[in-house]
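Write out this protein's structure.
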Amino acid sequence: MNKAKKGIKLYLAALAVAVAMAAAGCGGGGGSAPGDTISGSVQTPGGAVSARSADRTASALQNVSSAVTVNAYSVGSSGALTLLTTAQSSAAGNFSISLPSGVKVASTLVLLSVEFGSVEMRALATATSGVGISPVSEAVIQVIEQRMSDSGRSFSDLTRAEITAVETGVETALEGENFAGATISDAIADAAAAAARDAAVQAALAAALPDSSSSSVAIAVIATTDWTSGALSYITLNGDMSTAPAVTNNVLSIHSDATVKADGGYVFVINRYGQDNITVLDPADGLSLVTQFSTGNGSNPQDIAVISATKAYVSRLGSASLLIVNPATGAELGSVDLSGFALSDGVPEMAQMVKVGTKVFVLLQNLVDWAPAAPGILAVIDTATDLLIDADAAVPGVQGVEVSGWNPQYAVYNAATNRIYVSSSGDYYNPETPGGVDSVNPDTYAAASVADKTGLGGAPGSLAVVSSSKAYVAVSDSSFVNHIIPFNPSTGAVSASVYTPGGYTVGGIAVDPFGYLLVPDMSYETPGIVFIDTLTNTVAQGPVSVGLPPYAVAFTTMQSDE
């Protein structure tokens, strides 16, 4: 979950049937035996039909009303997918897909997939009939993927009985869910969150994947600060909000101006202005210290993006070049010159980075003397070559992607919409300076305004996108009071505030694997992490004290002591 659709890396190879059979290890006397035929239906929000099991009902799902393409993949021992065949459903959403010769559901794990734009729904075929491809089946896969990602395991490690047990648990958990009026993306997000919180689902996952469930736990790592000193704390997450979650405070002293990032199997504490270094921690070993490395004197690092086990990019606010390092050792491997994007001060003011496929988008703030001086830009880098990509061939030179807002602060990618969302604060003291939320297509580099700061009610800061129609942004109003504002990332429609955190800033909001929005509340009286239920937009817990006031949040899994 964590709304990251792919918990395991899926390699899709569209091969000829004979090659696919060989790659999948399917055969039986040269493949002369006929393959199985899998039948079922494709269901999306809109009505009420039976879910995958005949005795389970998921509310407000109905068969699609036009033909769709159904892809069938075999799941290999490493989790890699090999395309077996494709078929078209009927106009009523029913499908019958014939597998290649020799491919049997009893001996080959088959995954079915349907795509609606950039939204994918998947189902594991544990039987040859009655297979439903729906937000419920996608939720089944996502909760399994989340657990498997804790240990690097694959679907192929599971028996059909174990998969069916998880499916039954998810379907039971979702019996009372009503997806009427929801987008496919929303229905998937809500179904996955509701399933992840359900005790029966977790019990089924624990039975199916006992090694991973007993060896690791989900945690939220929190960078805390009172702007004089800083510390790292963490919260143990299990989706149960009936009581306050367990907190482990002050596991490490950090810089008073620090943020935190989980990526590539590590936790990175980015010690910013005045310390210029990054601390690398290993969550698989109780957040033990791996290394600490300098990013250059006066460089003011802002973010790190892990490209591989031996390569990462570091954005630096005080430098004109993006640093390339080994994330495990900190060894410098080179740099990417971004000085061509700089204004009169010679530095482009790099901030957050977003990875999409083989590209990294670097957010450039375009400040002069700490004041916004031009619209924000996303510089695009090819991670295979470490070279800049020209985002506008019609203009001479190498161009980035320009957004409408000035002083961009945060950027996130959402797979359901295939868009990068950029939050720009403008000028806190000048309401005329443009600001708001923009979207960027990572394939075409087209940028569009989603919501401006007037519509949002103030200067937007950190943001989190749940689905194609559900997102949240921290907004500072004209009195510098912070609000957590829901908005629709597809239409720009803005809703009323769901929470008003104290303090003069909200460092970073984020959605956990169970569908709760974690808000760092830096109020002077009761600082702590607030859990907002994204299914109901209500406060589920908090503020939960984490020692010093919380500033930034990152999610990972940590080895359990049990």
